[in-house]
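Quick illustration, no need to memorize.
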Amino acid sequence: MGRRSLAVLLGLSAVLAGCVNEPPPRSFTEFMEDRFAREGTLVRCNEDRTATANDPECINARRAAAALAAQEDAAQRERRDAQSEARLLAARQRQATQQEAERRAEVAAQVEEQLVYESQWQQEPVSELPPIENAAREVSAEVSQTGSVTPMPALEPITLPESIRPPLTTISLPRNAKPLVFEPTEPALEEIVVPEHLRKID
């Protein structure tokens, strides 16, 4: 009996020693922080999914991998949204720049058109003035220099040829036309007789 009891005690000691030396399964947080431990555990667990379905480490490693994948998807969505917003903002800026360029071109065209229109009414240069204005300027300069004006020769009369003279229009009255008679609209003044005693005595 002593030997059997000793054998049982030794076996129990070995079992207890094995249980004490076996490390606990790694947690979800450890797999989130340790990339190599997570990937190594997933490789082992994926070899036989049925056998490792209830393995605590496999469960924690898979949870950590799913959480990290969700975080990566969210980050990618944010980056895509930021890129889309940047592209939209750039498109709006290009449109605003194009509209501003078109507006400036239109204003420049209007200003140029206004300048062309106003240039038609500006005073002509002295060299292009009509002969009468040039003559007036010459007379004024001569008077200021000499105090007198040289008389200009009389202009010869101009006779128009018969071909360009305007024809005289003859008006023919009908035979039964009555002559115009102008009658006074006011009665004639009666003769005023001055009395004898008011007449001037020579």
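Helices lie at 2-21, 28-33, 35-47, 56-119, 131-146.
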